[in-house]
Amino acid sequence: MNFNDLKVFRTIYEVGSLNKAAQTLGYAQSNITARLKLMEQELDSTLFVRMPKGVRPTEAGNIFYKAVLNIQAELAQVSAKINQRKKMLLGSETLISEVLSHNNVNYRNFSKIVVKNQNDIVKEAASHLYDMVVTFINMDNSHIYNLNKVCQISTNYAVQNQSVFNDRSVPILINSDPECAFRKRTLKDLIDKTRVFEVDSLQAIELLVEQGKGIALLPSKAIEERHLVKLRTNDILLKYYLYQAK
Length: 246
Description:
By secondary structure, this protein is of the alpha/beta class. It is built from ten helices and eleven strands. The chain has helices at residues 3-15, 18-25, 29-43, 59-83, 93-102, 118-127, 162-166, 181-189, 202-210, 220-225, and strands at 48-51, 54-57, 88-91, 112-115, 132-135, 145-159, 172-175, 196-199, 215-219, 229-230, 236-245. Strands 3, 4, 5, 6, 7, 8, 9, 10 and 11 form a nine-stranded mixed β-sheet that branches. It has a two-stranded antiparallel sheet with strand order 1-2. Strand 3, helix 5 (93-102) and strand 4 form a beta-alpha-beta unit. The longest helix has 25 residues, at 59-83. The two termini are 28 Å apart.
């Protein structure tokens, strides 16, 4: 088994299909199938159950997946030390902007800033070593990152003007990322969820609100910069975390 086999296994596990894994990695499906068979022979265990549409991990597959994440994280640490890698920052679109603005973090200290959906940050942080990770998700169980700081971002519900708020046909905009803290808080606050409309990008949500085409929970800084109207007297504080590599 080699390092590439770990990547093959992880891809199969995460996409749930040999065919999709082959497409993702740019291999022939026969190659993927052969690599998986060799891995199962070496481990003397069945890692996936073949289904009509894709594959499902066995208990052994779930155990091996956790091990693969740890191995890849350790390899990333070793690679960083060997190559004396420059610093990298990982976070969501919203939180990177927040941390650079309000936490005395200078973007010039990093050679690369990687933006991911909240839903992808934990996996990304596990497979590549970052000097700093900023996320809404608690990663205290990580063995390669230390919690540096717990912070809060000020938010509020925003509209272009009061008439938009009074128009019941105007949708409530939320991010499509299931781990987005803005999405979670909005769904928690809403009684009537029939007006909810999902959008992939925070910038797109801000633009739609600015154009009077939606109502959304936004960072207070963005509300002020776009001269929008706040719907609450007091801001809503959402907790987020700053982690640093050990």
